[in-house]
Automatic annotation (TrEMBL):
Organism: Bradyrhizobium daqingense
Domain Peptidase S11 D-Ala-D-Ala carboxypeptidase A C-terminal as annotated: residue spans: 304-394
Keywords: Carboxypeptidase, Cell shape, Cell wall biogenesis/degradation, Hydrolase, Membrane, Peptidoglycan synthesis, Protease, Signal, Transmembrane, Transmembrane helix
UniProt-recorded name of the protein: serine-type D-Ala-D-Ala carboxypeptidase
Enzyme Commission number(s) from the entry: 3.4.16.4
Catalytic function, reaction form: Preferential cleavage: (Ac)2-L-Lys-D-Ala-|-D-Ala. Also transpeptidation of peptidyl-alanyl moieties that are N-acyl substituents of D-alanine
Family per similarity comment: Belongs to the peptidase S11 family.
Keyword Amino-acid biosynthesis attributed: no
Ribonucleoprotein is among the record's keywords: no
Function: Removes C-terminal D-alanyl residues from sugar-peptide cell wall precursors.
GO molecular function: serine-type D-Ala-D-Ala carboxypeptidase activity
Length: 420
């Protein structure tokens, strides 16, 4: 079944310039499911962010995500910036994971616990600590255990100082830079631990994105989040994640608390082959934090199931080509386009391929063109990259001239409409 989708807004054309704007392509969907799917005509920017009426959440900010597809099952003020507290240690851990993966550092490397790390994050600080001794040397592996399982601020500071010289440089040149590479566009960092600082801000959406990335891209390190205790300096401390002992399949990730941010946590659990990620923040009580996260996960497992909308390498839609041998190119997703839907089949899905175009020829096979976005009940449920299924060579001079004239006329009409 094919759905013709309207063209979205484009920028004005200047003489001789090619109009390159956001376009919704023709979308091809074959769904073995009784729910309805529509091709929407409203702009992408106008997508509604309604809360899911099927869940009554008490957390000021919250999000529930299916890990495999990234499908959002529930969100509430998910883009509100708040102090992430110790949940920000996920970003510090990811920077270290990535450095180990790239070979820049080794797990066996030993870093010194400076007086600064000891005083600000160690035993004298009164904050969460792994109790590393001043001037002692601790391996990267043990520092990761201390930071993740014990939420050790001394471990995070020691990692930052060893890798960057000091925390401020680590926050700016390592954490922020890496966050932007991962698509975390709003997060800001002032230190490595999440200790109170006005510069530490994250949204629950970006915390969920970060958690999903760690789970999918660093499975060898993710298992650390599920370890229930760690002993250092002869002091045994349990993992601070309350879900590990209270919910089937729970194996991560991180809790946090500061007066500025309130109580929050990033949690994840697997049941019947499905992994969900929950993030809550801004609660007034640690018990409420645990209860809310567990309640949201249980609601997700109970009410949703995964459906495949489009199989991998099957046609998703077509993108318009400028100056090519062909006027369009078929688009495919390299992975199945899946979305979590209510088991009762009551969801209304809206799907659209969005790309910047028309795409200028030549087009290479496998070239990334855009994304297919799926909305469920007004919220973006999943985004999946789409690629050119075949190559499109450069067309004749006449073909390019006709396409150029066509784009110029469209731009003139659009510019005239904007003046009305």
């Amino acid at each position: 079944m094919a759905f013709p989708l309207s063209q979205l807004r484009r920028p004005r054309l200047t003489a001789g310039a090619l109009a390159r704007g956001l376009i919704a392509a023709v979308l091809v969907m074959g769904i073995g499911w009784g729910g309805a799917i529509y091709a929407a005509n409203q702009s992408v920017q106008g997508a509604k962010k309604a809360e899911d009426a099927g869940f009554d959440g008490d957390a000021p900010t919250a999000i529930l995500i299916e890990a495999s597809s990234g499908s959002v099952l529930f969100e509430k003020n998910a883009d509100e910036l708040r102090a992430p507290s110790s949940m920000m240690k996920l970003m510090t851990a990811e920077v270290v994971f990535n450095a180990v993966k790239k070979g820049d550092i080794k797990l066996t490397d030993e870093y010194r616990i400076s007086e600064n790390a000891w005083r600000r994050g160690g035993a004298p600080s009164g904050s969460s600590t792994m109790f590393a001794a001043i001037n002692s040397k601790v391996s990267v592996d043990d520092l990761l255990h201390g930071a993740i399982i014990q939420s050790g601020n001394d471990a995070c500071i020691a990692l930052a100082e060893a890798m960057a010289g000091n925390e401020r440089i680590f926050a700016a040149d390592f954490m922020t830079k890496r966050a932007r590479e991962l698509g975390l566009t709003r997060s800001t960092f002032a230190n490595a631990s999440g200790l109170p600082d006005p510069g530490n801000k994250m949204t629950v959406r970006e915390l969920g994105m970060l958690a999903r990335h760690i789970i999918l891209d660093f499975p060898e390190f993710y298992k650390l989040f599920g370890e229930k205790e760690f002993t250092w300096n002869k002091i045994r401390q349990p993992n601070r994640n309350p879900l590990l002992n209270s919910m089937e399949g729970a194996d991560g990730l991180k809790t946090g608390f500061t007066k500025e941010g309130g109580y929050g946590m990033v949690g994840s659990a697997v049941q019947n082959g499905t992994r969900l990620i929950v993030v809550v923040n801004g609660l007034d009580d640690p018990d409420d934090r645990a209860t809310e996260a567990k309640k949201m996960l249980e609601w997700g497992f109970r009410n949703f199931e995964t459906r495949t909308l489009i199989a991998a390498e099957h046609a998703v839609g077509y993108a318009k080509v400028f100056g090519g041998e062909s006027r369009s190119v078929k688009l495919v997703a390299k992975t199945p386009v899946k979305v979590m839907v209510h088991r009762n089949g009551s969801d209304k899905l809206i799907a659209r391929v969005v790309y910047s175009g028309p795409v200028r020829a030549p087009v290479e096979a496998g070239q990334r063109i855009g994304v297919v976005k799926v909305w469920r009940s007004g919220n973006i449920a999943v985004e999946t990259p789409v690629y050119a299924a075949e190559a499109v060579g450069t067309g004749s001079t006449m073909r390019r001239a006709i396409d150029g004239a066509s784009e110029l006329v469209i731009g003139m009409f659009r510019a005239g409409a904007e003046k009305l």
